[in-house]
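Sample pair:
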Amino acid sequence: MEQKTLFMIKPDATTDNHIGEILQMVEKNGFVIENMKMFKMDHALVEEFYAEHVGKHFFPEHSAFMRSGEIVGVVLSREDAVLKLRELVGATDFTQAALGTVRSIFGRSKGENAVHASDSIESADREIALIFK
């Protein structure tokens, strides 16, 4: 079943000029770019987007990182988009991501892991609505 999902290229990967390489990986894996924009997150958007993590010990550092530079937000579509994108992205900790995944190639650390991919259809719907108001 064709689905839409949210994909974000985070500030570490945009600063390191990996936008084109990452988008090429995504397209070569059967995803269609439906919408795309470059933007910066402010404090309010970070808190709304990552609401389930507010108050956790790592959140202040993560919030500062997500506000530190440009982000590329992308709405992607394909069959089983959420699952297939999560497979392509790899584990959150880039050292544990399967070889050839986006994070194994472009991740710097567990926090600076190059990209975000929605973890469910419900999350994708919520996140797309937040980023593409």
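Residues 39 and 83 are 25 Å apart (CA to CA).
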